[in-house]
Amino acid sequence: MDINQTSIDNVPIVSVSGRIDGTTSKDLETILNELIDQNKSEIVLDLEGVVYISSVGLRVLLATQKKVRPKKGDVKLVSLQPFVREVFEMTGFTRLFSIYPNQGEALSGTKLQNEL
Amino acid sequence: MTMEAMENEQEITVAATVEEIPVIFDFIESLMSLAGFDSRKIMEVQLALEEACTNVAKYAYPGKAGTIHIVAILHGDRLELIIEDEGTPFDPTTHTVDLSQDDTKDRPVGGLGIHLIRCYVDRMSFEFRDGKNALTLVKNRA
User: Which among A55, A62, A87 is the nearest to B107, CB-wise?
Assistant: First the structure.
């Protein structure tokens, strides 16, 4: 798994590629926790390069969402690939996150609706 | 790690730790590829296996080391996986998770793994025999 971090208008964008599984999810958790420690409450997580996610990865995302929501924040997910999208649907996670087709729409707040 | 190959049946024994998940991924991918399963079905089985083995790694052997033994048997278009451990008796088939909560703060963080196993295999059954947990997962190629 590879993780790249950028920032646009002070909003952190975390781009992940590869597999988010039991051996890799810790790295993602560390980076997301660092952003929360920096008081970032809006985080764009670009999953375009992610082909696989297991429940360990889902738990990392949910734990992050639980931390930012009380601060009126949001973890915005971008570019879910077919298998990852299906895992989100089967676990009801599509109802817990805002999901966007690309980074630009995540930053402007235009949600991908009803396609899920 | 030991690996034995037989006609239509392969098995692997790994330490019951999450660090062994890539080894399990490789084992099942090579076996399923050779048997003609497509990449999507392979990922689905990898997910089910990861969830099953993660549960064993986290809960079966509290405070001590243990192993996971996986037997993969191909019956034509059907793959049967038997995941065995000698840890604390635990029947995952009896567990359910409430996914109805739409509010993030009410959502339990755990319990998703067994649900995902159920989603991605065609059959799941459990037996405690000879002091071992034996979880059987079946995946059809078609």
Answer: A62
Cα–Cα distance, B107 to A11 (Å, whole number): 26
Q: Looking at CA atoms only, how far is residue A8 from chain B in angstroms? A: 26
Lookup result for tokens 């109802």:
A95
As a dihedral over the C-alpha atoms of residue A71, residue A75, residue A76, residue A77, rounded to 10 degrees, the angle is -170
Digit-coded pLDDT (tens) for A22-67: 999 999 999 999 999 999 999 999 999 999 999 999 999 999 999 9
What are B44-89's pLDDT values in tens digits? 999 999 999 999 999 999 999 999 999 999 998 999 999 999 999 9
Nearest to B91 by CA among B54, B62, B60, B128: B128
- The domains located in chain A, with CATH, are 2-108 (3.30.750.24)
Q: How many CB pairs under 8 A join A and B?
A: 64
Give the domains, in start order, of chain B with CATH numbers.
2-140 (3.30.565.10)
Q: How far apart are CA A68 and CA A23, in angstroms?
A: 25
Residues of chain B positioned with their CB less than 8 A from the CB of A23: 18-19, 21-22
Q: What is the ipTM of this complex?
A: 0.90
